[in-house]
Write a structure and sequence with these properties.
Oligomer: single chain
Strand order of the largest sheet: 8-9-10-1-11-21-12
Shape: globular
Helix content: 25-40%
Length: 545
């Protein structure tokens, strides 16, 4: 039968956000059951929570969304087979009551809960989950995360209405954690039959605690409580339906506008709090709530196929030229750490490679000289009549992106590298990655499992950064198939070393998610990937109507 991992659904109840502060402040609100102060601090039902984000990807399908601002809303629409404890990293029950994993980590059998329905009234069955997994490869480039999690699937079998088996051609130790992510959140059978674009624009039908009532791309998304919901994650405190009646996500691109809206009481919570706004928000009575994101840190992804960047010494020079501490302290919110690996330190398997990521502009200059790039009269280096000028592609999905890149632009100029910043629309992300029409690309990717490295940097997958085939591929494949925790950690360490030492990408700073939360908002918690969980959230003042 193989090694068996079983979890009883009601084995325990754990607060899904013990690392964050619980708020016990007063707020303003709209008329609802929550308009009265909660007696004795006890949670009450009702009210509308208004949450301001800085951007929108233009898609309301969790299986096709990778930007945090959009994940915040669509995550509430779907349940996952499992959940992940943000404190311990343990995988716990959600839609699956229990599961078994074979000794070689090739076969995963999930036993589904009875009585789960989607908001269109259809039932959750193993056939529906199978249809979800079968449809993912056809979703296209926006579903790169989900596709990566399912790479190597040999077959998906509904053994009976409540039993699903997923078998991989090769060992795949990361898959259990993948089933806890929003990217493999389960949608209805009808939703799996829609085209990728229809799923983005119309939204999907999920079994989650909220439904999508209205979606206006780049403007707002309105969620409504799912009446009769009764199959939440085993990590959630509340059983049954969510407390909130409604959640409205408003897109407010300007950081100052979001801050002002929270201070004036027009919204209840905001994302992407900047360093410059922290003091004003705290002075106004708002609470700042932060958690470091696991996964790949903010980095300059290098297009390794470009002539100049195919030279390892040039890439290493870029790595040494960047003052990560200055970027963290100048641009990002308080508590942000400079990158010490390609993985954030909150990621399982993280290895400290800070010795490779020091700021050494003189070493950078020496490396560029050795590579044949000589400083010109204007300070910019040239070789064979060509200036060392690089273009950085970036997207406006975080207010820190432009100022961080402008500072990096200055730092690289000091060693003789000219940098042009080119902004793209968020919806163009997949197109730009596929085209390879960039020298460097600014970004990060959150996941609480080190297999994120395989998703991003294996030449056998999307290979966005045109990394040449090396022994790194074997290391990434081997870690995905290694069940032994110590052995997998050693392989993950080797992968990080190869990525950083070869400068296939240039790590810069860790992402820290920092929210501003108004008085009267309680239990707005982070899940394991530092996105928000709203099922347990309640309002003592009613929130915004």
């Amino acid at each position: 039968m193989g090694r068996t991992l079983k979890h009883a659904l009601d084995r325990r109840v754990v607060t899904a956000g013990l690392t964050v502060s619980l708020l016990a402040l007063a707020g303003c609100g709209s008329g609802s059951d929550a308009s009265a102060e909660a007696a004795g601090g006890e949670p009450v039902s009702g009210g509308t929570l208004t949450f301001a984000v800085g951007s929108d990807t233009g898609c309301a399908d969790p299986q096709q969304v990778a930007s945090n601002d959009s994940i915040y809303s669509v995550r509430q629409l779907v349940d996952s087979l499992t959940d992940q404890d943000p404190e311990t990293g343990e995988i716990v029950p959600w839609l699956a009551e229990s599961w078994e994993i074979s000794d070689d980590a090739r076969s995963f059998t999930f036993h589904l809960r009875d009585g789960v329905t989607f908001s269109d009234g259809s039932e959750l069955t193993a056939e529906v989950v199978k249809a979800n997994f079968d449809a993912v490869p056809d979703l296209g480039p926006l579903a790169n995360l989900a596709t990566g999690y399912l790479t190597g699937v040999e077959k998906v079998t509904a053994e009976d209405p409540q039993t699903l088996n997923v078998t991989f051609a090769q060992p795949n130790a990361q898959f259990l954690q993948a089933t806890s992510t929003h990217s493999l959140g389960v949608v209805s059978l009808a939703s799996t039959e829609l085209s990728p674009q229809e799923r983005c624009t119309q939204g999907i039908v999920g079994s989650g605690p909220f439904t999508l009532a209205e979606y206006a791309p780049n403007q707002s998304a309105t969620l409504r409580k799912r009446t009769g919901y009764d199959w939440g994650s085993s990590l959630w405190k509340k059983k049954g339906e969510a407390y909130l009646d409604e959640v409205v996500f408003k897109v407010l691109p300007e950081s100052g506008v979001r801050t002002g809206s929270l201070q004036s009481g027009q919204v209840d919570a905001i994302g992407n709090v900047g360093r410059a706004d922290e003091a004003a928000l705290e002075a106004s009575g708002a609470t700042l709530q932060a958690r470091a994101n696991p996964g790949a840190v903010f980095n300059l992804g290098v297009n390794n196929s470009r002539p100049a960047l195919s030279d390892e010494k040039v890439r290493q020079a870029l790595r040494q030229a960047i003052d990560r501490q200055q970027v963290a302290d100048t641009v990002f919110n308080t508590g942000t750490e400079p990158a010490t690996s390609i993985l954030a330190r909150t990621t399982p398997g993280y290895t400290d490679l800070s010795a490779e990521l020091g700021h050494d502009p003189e070493k950078a200059k020496t490396l560029l000289e050795e590579a044949g790039w000589k400083a010109g009269a204007d300070g910019i280096r040239a070789k064979d009549g060509q200036k060392l000028s690089l273009t950085v592609a970036w997207f406006a999905n975080s207010p820190t992106n432009q100022p961080a890149l402008e500072l990096i632009q200055q730092q690289l100029r000091e060693v003789g590298v000219a940098v042009e910043l080119k902004q793209y629309e968020i919806a163009q992300g997949a197109e730009v990655q596929q085209s390879g029409n960039f020298d460097l690309m600014w970004g990060n990717l959150t996941r609480a499992d080190p297999d994120i490295l395989r998703s991003l940097y294996s030449t056998g997958l999307a290979n966005t950064y045109r990394i040449p085939a090396t022994g790194l591929d074997d290391t990434l494949t081997d870690q995905a198939g290694t069940v032994d925790e110590a052995a997998r950690k050693e392989l993950v360490a080797g992968a990080q070393e190869a990525i950083v030492q070869n400068a296939f990408v240039i790590p810069v700073v860790e992402l820290q998610t920092k929210l501003g939360i108004a008085a009267g908002v309680h239990d707005l918690n982070f899940e394991a990937s530092s996105r928000i969980q709203l099922h347990d959230t309640w309002l003592s003042g009613g929130g915004q109507g």
